[in-house]
Amino acid sequence: MGPGPGGALTAPVALVTGTGLYALDGLEGGRAREVETRHGRVTVTEGALDGTPLAHLPRHGAGHARLSHQVDPRANVAAVAALGARCLVSTTVCGAVDPSLDLGSLVVFDDLHFPSNRLADGSLCTLFTDPGAPGRGHWIHEGPFAAGVRDALLRGARAEGLPVRDGGTYGHVDGPRFNTRSEIAALAAAGVAAVSQTAGPEAVLAGEAGLPFALLGFVTDHANGVMPEPTPAETLERLFRGSAAVLQRALRAALPHLADPGPPAGFVFRL
Predict the structure, then answer these.
(1) Angle, nearest 10°, between helix axes 73-82 and 199-209?
(2) What are φ and ψ of residue 58, in 5° steps?
(3) Average confidence score pLDDT of the chain
(4) pLDDT per residue over 66-108, tens digit each?
(5) Can you spell out the DSSP letters for the chain?
(6) Is the predicted pLDDT of residue 40 greater than 60, yes or no?
(7) pLDDT confidence of 11, banded at 50, 70, 90?
(8) CATH number at residue 201
(9) Mean pLDDT of 133-160
(10) Structure confidence at residue 10 (pLDDT)
């Protein structure tokens, strides 16, 4: 990590990015580093952006090698925690369940719908996998996203003049298929604003790891049944391809506000 005042090492901002955003433009001194965790080995790219030390992890890998059910969020979060990250920001492209969300707009989520609390392999979504392990406990919170990190993302998007919604419930759904009309209707009834297939476990695991965490979404389509006509495939593809540039603008502008991200969401009641 880069030197801070007096030569001290500066903790990085960790970024976990999704579909379309596999490398950061303008990253200085980028180098890949293998991080071994008890949940698996992860490749993280370390560098700096506008002087801010970063640890970047594209969850799908180069060229989108891993589909959503092949992502290992437990190893990913454990890796950035092991690097001493001061906060974690995740990005996701998402489908709008709320019809008032405009395509191409951003959402800084403030709540989570992830009732299964399970990973793609069916195991429970937790870092606390071994009975009697030191530090085990229950993550307790009033909201799953850290206020300081959310504020930084909102300030960054607004500084760039990007359309962004402050708040909305993120719905985690299992992939890799997209959801039926019936499934989306049930999520709408639960108050979900937008859905994707990867970020629910990251929120939970970041909470258990004590990492201040927030999630930035980019709306690429309206989910099944939300609008009278489905989002055209060419529109979806265009927005997928354009999402990386928009997300990077928002992230870059948010970095100065993440120097002190504040506390994580809630606390772990350790046993």
Answers:
(1) 40
(2) -75, 115
(3) 94
(4) 999 999 999 999 999 999 999 999 999 999 999 999 999 999 9
(5) --B-GGGPBPPPEEEEE-TT--S-TT-EEEEEEEEEETTEEEEEEEEEETTEEEEEEETT-GGG-S-GGG--HHHHHHHHHHTT-SEEEEEEEEEESSTTSPTT-EEE--EEE-TT-B-TTS-BS-S--STT-TT-EEEE-SSSS-HHHHHHHHHHHHHTT--EEE--EEEE---SSPPPHHHHHHHHHTTEEEEESSHHHHHHHHHHHT--EEEEEEEEEEPTTSSSSPPPHHHHHHHHHHHHHHHHHHHHHHGGGGSS--PPSSEEEE-
(6) yes
(7) confident
(8) 3.40.50.1580
(9) 97
(10) 62
Q: Which amino acid is at 162?
A: L
Amino acid at 143: G
Domain limits for position 67: 5-270
